[in-house]
Write a structure and sequence with these properties.
The complex is a heterodimer.
Chain A: H1 2-24, E1 27-29, E2 38-40, E3 47-49, E4 58-60, H2 62-81
Antiparallel strand pairs in A: 1-4, 2-3
Chain B: H1 2-6, H2 10-16, H3 57-80, H4 82-108, H5 114-122, H6 126-164, H7 167-185, H8 207-216, E1 228-229, E2 234-235, E3 239-245, H9 252-257, H10 259-266, E4 273-277, E5 284-290, E6 316-320, E7 326-329, E8 335-339, H11 346-358, E9 363-369, E10 385-388, H12 399-423, H13 436-440, E11 448-454, H14 465-481, E12 487-493, H15 503-513, E13 517-521, H16 526-533, H17 535-539, E14 556-560, E15 568-571, H18 576-593, H19 612-618, E16 626-628, H20 629-639, H21 641-644, H22 649-656, H23 662-666, E17 671-674, E18 677-683, H24 684-697
Parallel strand pairs in B: 8-12, 8-13, 9-10, 9-11, 11-12
Antiparallel strand pairs in B: 1-3, 2-3, 3-5, 4-5, 6-7, 6-15, 13-14, 14-15, 16-18, 17-18
Helix pairs in contact in B: 4-7, 5-6, 8-10, 11-18, 12-14, 14-15, 19-24, 20-22
The chains are: A alpha+beta, B alpha/beta.
Chain lengths: 82, 700
């Protein structure tokens, strides 16, 4: 039983930490380009933009994306009611 | 026309032409005079006093005393509550330090920008977010340095205090800090210090509010017919005053009709709004708005309670008007009508004035109380005559007979006075009118009289119409002639119209309308108010049915007729106990002045109704079958002089004949045999028949 408590506490802490990062650092590095925003040749003379992040090097965290989705749904519902 | 031009002497011309329009009577105006423009008005500029009135020589002492008193009250109030304040400060400063800590952390973390960053994240805009984030990071750095400095400062200050270790040093730093923290910690609606002195505050009346009110009342239009002001808004008493100019074509009457709407537009009670006619123009009037409802503040006890002798020739203090100014009523040469619904202070108002007259020992008072109320009972101490109600009283007999007798006596007194006053030399009586000296000199026997008629309508509604008519005639005579002969009339009624029928109703109205001064307390409707105040009063905006209703407004009424601006008066109070004190004092004053007369002096005023038949019977000597009228008159005058002094045979015959029966009356000339003559007279059989018939007939 003891390990179940510890495990759930650990999971809670992890979840809270993730939620906090969704608020304070909603953007993480792009998975494809790892935050660089571009792909370059070894000598660095020729490069192209990362197609995924369009050169920004950042992506929204999944949690934040979910939150945003819900946020927009809520807003739309409100507007429709009005 | 040529004729006119030849005659330059006006007198001669006037003799020649007997109508005025043929000849100019006035001089031609001088043409050289400079024109005067009507619009130009010169106003004196207002000069503010160099030293305010409060700091002038006579006032400094009072000003200082007031200031000291006020502030020592404040100090005492707060000193007593000091422990409470200390507890409050301790608690609130704890709350305050937590709050300030939170505030500084939020400041350090640039939380004012937080919302923007979240917006950027919500709209998936990494570039904006990055920019904001970089900016926030820089800001956080320098704000952190500032906070660190502050923290170090606090630590250093604490260390210094610790090192110094003096209580005053701790206090000097700690108390202001605690107060500051408590100020931040307290709820915004709960000040730490209580309020020792509450200063009354009123909404300031501004010209915008006044304009709003007048436009809302449809007395003007901001574009087409603007309302403007004849001066600046000023304080006057406990209220604000301004002269309002209505648009051309609107009159004072329109403003009076719209008074309720104006009050609503000013957002005050209607009783707080007072409109006064401006004599210069019907377009403009003075608007006075009281700070608070002025009529709900009682006027206090009557100054008569000082029990000083008064003077009927001076105005009687009556109450306070809506602006708190004293109102007095000139009783001399006047008659006053008080009218209202029952239980509105009618009797108290009338009694207040009667008490004033009672305290002048040279006024002879007659009380005629139609409703037989206990309010007037104590006037028995001073009243020359006191008539109670309409039914016979055990101590003063039939009240109606007494009333008629009293009114007849007053009527004769008025006639006698007018005769004597015209005979007096001009050095004593310059205008042929009563003067204060004559009235107060007992050798003339012409004191000022006060006749109080409480609920006088009762005497117009007696069962016998003849009696009503007789009383109505006497009262009408009294009201029309009395005041100028020094007989003051003070009537009060709760039913000022619709009394009596036929001639009596007409006489009632005439009596009512003969009063110069009217005082109307709250009336049931406009018609009653008009009956009391007179028809023109309503058109001028005075309606006693519009007076406020309620316990606080007892004794509030409109005084109309003796001045240009009829005030709404809160009358002074004199309750039953006060009245008794005043009347006891008045009696002793009268005793000292030797002016106590009539019933108050213990005279029985019972009117013995003579029985003419019985009286005549007493002058028939034994064995006489008949006596002539002439002899009856002589014998009556001889034996009953108090009733028949100076009577004549015609008078006796006129009194007795209607009492005889039909048959004896019809006998020609009532000729009887007296001795061997046939004379006009009365026979014993006729007389005894009449007496017997009367005893059988109506049992008297």
């Amino acid at each position: 039983v003891n390990w179940v408590v510890w495990a759930s506490l650990f999971l809670l802490v992890v979840a809270l930490r993730y939620a906090a990062s969704c608020v304070w650092r909603p953007f993480a590095n792009c998975v494809k380009c790892e935050g660089k925003g571009r792909f370059a040749r070894a000598d660095g003379k020729v490069w192209r933009k990362c197609p995924r992040c369009k050169g920004g090097g950042a992506r929204l965290r999944v949690g934040r994306k979910m939150w945003n989705y819900m946020h927009h749904q809520r807003k739309a519902a409100k507007r429709a009611r009005r | 026309v040529t004729d006119v031009q030849q005659h330059h002497d006006p007198l001669e011309a006037a003799l020649k032409f007997d109508t005025h329009f043929e000849w100019p009577l006035d001089d031609e105006p001088e043409p050289t005079r400079a024109p005067v423009y009507v619009d130009v008005t010169v106003r004196d500029d207002e000069r503010r006093p160099i030293i305010p009135a409060a700091y002038r020589r006579g006032n400094v002492r009072t000003t200082v005393r007031r200031g000291v008193g006020r502030n020592s009250h404040r100090a005492g109030y707060h000193v007593v509550r000091a422990p409470l304040y200390a507890t409050k400060v301790a608690w609130y400063s704890t709350v305050g330090s937590v709050r300030i800590l939170g505030k500084s952390i939020r400041w350090w973390w640039v939380l004012e920008q937080h919302q923007l960053r979240q917006e950027a994240a919500t709209s998936n805009d990494p570039q904006t977010w990055m920019k904001l984030h970089a900016e926030a990071r820089d800001t956080r750095r320098w704000r952190g340095i500032v906070l660190l400095g502050a923290g170090v400062g606090i630590v250093l200050l604490t260390a210094a205090l610790w090192w110094l270790d003096r209580w005053w040093a701790w206090a000097a730093v700690g108390i202001p800090t605690a107060v500051l923290l408590a100020h931040h910690g307290r709820p915004i609606d709960k000040p730490i210090l209580g309020t020792a002195v509450v200063v009354p505050r009123f909404r300031m009346l501004t010209s915008d509010i006044v304009l709003r009110a007048y436009y809302a009342a449809k007395l003007g239009d901001p574009d087409k017919a603007p309302v403007d002001f004849g001066g600046t808004m000023a304080r006057d008493g406990e209220g604000s005053q301004v002269v309002v100019n209505l648009p051309y074509g609107k009159s004072f009457g329109d403003a009076i009709k719209a008074k309720a709407a104006i009050a609503s537009g000013l957002d005050v009670a209607e009783s707080q709004v007072f409109l006064t006619r401006d004599p210069a123009s019907t377009r403009s009037h003075v608007l006075w708005v009281a700070d608070r409802d002025p009529l709900a503040i009682p006027a206090g006890r009557t100054p008569l309670l000082r029990l000083r002798p008064t003077d009927i020739w001076a105005p009687a203090p009556f109450g306070l008007d809506q602006r708190g100014r004293p109102v007095s009523v000139e009783l001399m040469w006047n008659s006053l009508l008080v009218g209202a619904q029952p239980r509105k202070g009618k009797t108290f108002a009338a009694r207040l004035l009667a008490l004033y007259a009672a305290l002048d020992p040279y006024v002879r008072i007659t009380i005629i109380d139609g409703k037989k109320s206990p309010d007037w009972t104590k006037f028995g101490l001073v009243a020359d005559r006191y008539i109670r109600g309409t039914t016979p009283m055990f101590d003063s007999g039939d009240q109606i007979d007494l009333l008629i007798d009293t009114l007849e006596e007053i009527k004769q007194d008025i006639g006698r006075r007018n005769d004597r006053l015209t005979q007096l030399p001009p050095s004593i009586c310059p205008e042929g009118k009563l003067t204060r000296e004559i009235a107060r000199n007992p050798s003339y026997g012409m004191p000022v009289r006060l006749v109080v008629l409480e609920e006088f309508q009762v005497y117009y509604e007696l069962p016998e119409q003849d009696t009503n008519k007789q009383i109505a005639n006497l009262l009408t005579y009294l009201a029309s002639v009395g005041p100028s002969a020094g007989v003051i009339i003070l009537s009060s009624t709760q039913k000022p119209s619709g009394v009596g029928s036929g001639d009596v109703a007409r006489l009632f109205t005439r009596y009512r309308d003969n009063h110069q001064i009217r005082f109307a307390l709250r009336c049931g409707n406009r018609v009653v108010s008009e009956a009391v105040l007179g028809g023109e009063a309503y058109n001028e905006g005075f309606d006693a049915s519009g007076l406020p209703l309620g316990e606080a407004y007892r004794g509030v009424g409109i005084l109309y007729g003796d001045r240009d601006e009829p005030p709404t008066v809160r009358t002074h109070l004199a309750d039953g106990v006060d009245a008794e004190r005043i009347l006891v004092a008045a009696r002793s004053m009268r005793e000292r002045a030797g002016t106590l007369t009539g019933m108050a002096a213990g005279e029985s005023a019972e009117v013995t109704r003579r029985d003419p038949l019985a009286d005549v019977r007493t002058v028939f000597y034994a064995g006489e079958a008949a006596v002539s009228w002439k002899q009856i008159a002589e014998r009556l005058a001889d034996s009953l002089p108090e009733a028949y002094a100076g009577t004549t045979q015609e008078a006796v015959s006129a009194t007795v004949r209607p009492l005889l029966d039909e048959e004896s009356r019809s006998r020609k000339g009532l000729n009887v045999a007296v001795g061997d003559q046939r004379l006009k007279g009365l026979s014993r059989t006729d007389l005894e028949e009449a007496i017997a018939r009367r005893q059988i007939g109506d049992g008297r």
